[in-house]
Predict the 3D structure of the following.
Amino acid sequence: MNVISFISFIICVGILISLLQPNSDLLSPGKIFSLVWCLVIGVTNLKLSFLQKSWPTDVWIQILIGPVAFMVGILFAYLINFDKKIWSNLSLKGNLDLLKLNYSRLFVIIIVLFILFVVSYFIITLKAGTIPILGKKPWIIRRNFTMFGIGLFLHNVFLIVFLSGVYIIFEKNKKLKKMFVFFLSSTSVLLYSATLQRYQIIFSIFLIFVLLYYTTNRINFKSVIIIGLFIIGFFYLISSFRLGELALYILYKISKMKYSPEYAIFTEPYMYIAMNLENFAHAIQKLEYFTFGFYTFDFFTAITGLKHWIQEYSLLIENPYLISKSYNTFTAFWTYFRDFGILGVFFIPFGGGLGLGALYYSFKINPTIKKLALYGMFLFAAIFSFFNSVVGFLWFFYNFIAVLIIFKFIILPKNKRKTVININYSLSNK
C-alpha cells in the first residue's frame, strides 16, 4: 500500500470514529463528504489496474481543488451559523410538529405519481419492444429504454418510494391504505429494477434512510451496516443480470486487473470507483477548449430540446479522452472543469458546499419535512460526486421541482399545527 492510500484510509478511520461518538451527526455534510472522498482517493491510488497511471503534481492539484473548495464552502456555512441554536438529533426525533402533514392529499399524490409511472413504463416498453431484463441484449435495450418528455415519469419511482415511506412510517391509522401504498411502492421498485437501472433505487433508499435517521430511533450503527449490505447486494444482483459470469471475466480482462481472475467479481465495483478519477486526471491533460456551461446546466438544454442540436452543431463529444470505453464517468468536478476550467472547478463546488451547509443548518435551526427531503437529495449528490454531477441532470431537477410542489400541497398551515416545546433544543450536535 502506498503512502497516499495509507493516509487516506487513516483519515477515513478517524472520521468513522468521530461519527460513532454519542452526540455526532451521522449525516453531517462535512464529515460524510470527507469520508467518501478520502475513501475514493485511497482506493483509486491502490492502482490495481494496468489502465491506471501515476499522476503528476499539477494534475493532483487540479483534482483536489474541487473537493477542497466544496469543504471550504461547508466551513463557511458553519462559521455563519456558529452561534445559532440548532435542534439536536434527539430533539428532532421528538418534534412531532415536523410531521404534521395532510396525509389524505399525500395518499392521492402517490397514486397519481404511480399511474404516471406505469403509463410511461408501458409506452416506452411498446417502443422498445421489451424490457431490458428480458431482452437478448439487455445492455442495449437498457440504454434506449427512454423517451423524450414522457421518460421523465420513469423517475417517479424515487418520489413514490420516498413519499410512501413518509406515509407508511408516520400515518398512525389507515392500515389498509398503508398496505396499498406499500404495494404501489414495491411494484414501482420491481418494474424499475427490471430496466436494470439502479441509481434511482439507491437514491430512494438513501432518502428513506435520512428520513428514519432524523425522525425516529430506528437507525443505529447496526442498521447502517444492514442497509449498506443490502445496497451492496442490490448492486451485485443488478450486475449479475447485466453481466453474467462470462461477462465478468471478460470485464476483468478488459480492465487489465493486476490481481488473480479468482477475484474477478471485485473488478466492476473497484473500477467504477477508481476510473472516475483516472478519467478526470487523464482528461485534464488533454482538454483543449471549454464548453461554458453546456454540461453544468444540462437540465436546461435537455428540457428545451436544445441539447442534441447544440452537441451536433458544435461537434461535442459526450465523454472525450476516455482511457477505456468500458468506463465513461469522470466525477462531478470534471463537468465544471470542462465548462469553465480552474475557476469553474473552484467556485461552483465552493457554492455547492456553501449551499449544502446552509441547507443543513436551515434544517437544524427550523426543521421541516421539506427541508429534510431537500437536504437528503443534495447530500446524495455530494456523496456521489465521485461518480458524476447529478445536480445538473434533468431527472434530478424534475424530482427537485416535484418535491417543492408536493410539499407545498401536503404541509399543513401553521395555524393547524400544535406547538411542540422540547427541552433538548440546544446548541449541541453542531
